[in-house]
């Protein structure tokens, strides 16, 4: 092997090790949520990455494709492959990429606010609050918390009642 080939091989090996160790130390999407005082379970398992502008709070979270599931048979949720909005301490605003089925309609969740031990989800025309301990673990695409026919130990507990239609 020539000196040039050996140098190229060594450089490529060193570069890949440096990039790998650098990306291994980056916070995950779930770490970023926690850093803004949100539980990780507001996103399903499998977030593949994110973009965050710390100056403005603009973020994008990337999932491995679109995702839908039911929670305790009461709510159906859909996530697009990209969820975006603005994040700040205890507040997600101008959200896009997440919707909930209310009665026969799919409505976009546009805001999530943490108020103490509750999360308030707004669809614009109405909102509902849920105990934060419902979101300590991430649901799984396709089956939510009822994967492999194993029910989650706690039921989805509402703080101020379910979404109520304002129609």
TrEMBL record:
It comes from the Eukaryota. Keywords: Signal. It comes from Populus deltoides. Residues 1-23 form the signal peptide. The lineage of its organism: Eukaryota, Viridiplantae, Streptophyta, Embryophyta, Tracheophyta. The keyword Ribosomal protein does not apply. This is DUF538 domain-containing protein. Gene3D superfamilies: At5g01610-like. InterPro entries: At5g01610-like, DUF538. SUPFAM superfamilies: At5g01610-like (SSF141562).
